[in-house]
Specification:
The structure is a single chain. With 185 residues, the protein is α+β, with helices and mostly antiparallel strands. Helices cover 22% and strands 30% of the residues. Strand 3 (71-75) and strand 4 (83-90) form a beta hairpin. The longest helix has 32 residues, at 2-33. The relative contact order is 0.20.
Length: 185
Amino acid sequence: MMSFVKKFVHVVYEFVEAFVISASVFVVVYLFLMQPHQVKGSSMFPTFKDKEYLLTDKISYKRGVPQYEDVVVFKAPTNENFDFIKRVIGMPGDTIMVKGGHVYKNGKLLVEDYLSSDVITNAGQFLLEGESYVVQLGEVIVMGDNREHSSDSRDWGPVPDENVVGRVFFRYWPTNVAGVITNQE
């Protein structure tokens, strides 16, 4: 009988040990390396659809800055308890303007191959029609790919670097579209 109790305690101990190690690894990965996010809404359609699951790389921007066309996750400007997913279209030093249904960067029409050619980009409450904004050091301008249904920098302005959680690099759900995310996707 005593042998059974010892074996049982040993099995329970090993289970707890394995659980603690697994949980520790998960916490380290979640806090420092990558984080899962769910797409909520249609602001990035057709690139990402509602309820898709993505992985966000949290270390790239610790060593560098967002790049043009990166899809980033950041704390929502209106409520930092929520995360938004948008595309970087302006970086420090860029002059951004919305005019005539198009985005201009540094005086030139912004080529956005990831968008359908019939997409119209309207101005917002921050980026007013025909008025330019110079992106400051420590911030980026972001927009959703579904411009008609996206709350983005056009309405609430630039995203401070410290609010950027990371870069979307992998879609894992649904499995039929799972894979690595590139800037042009």
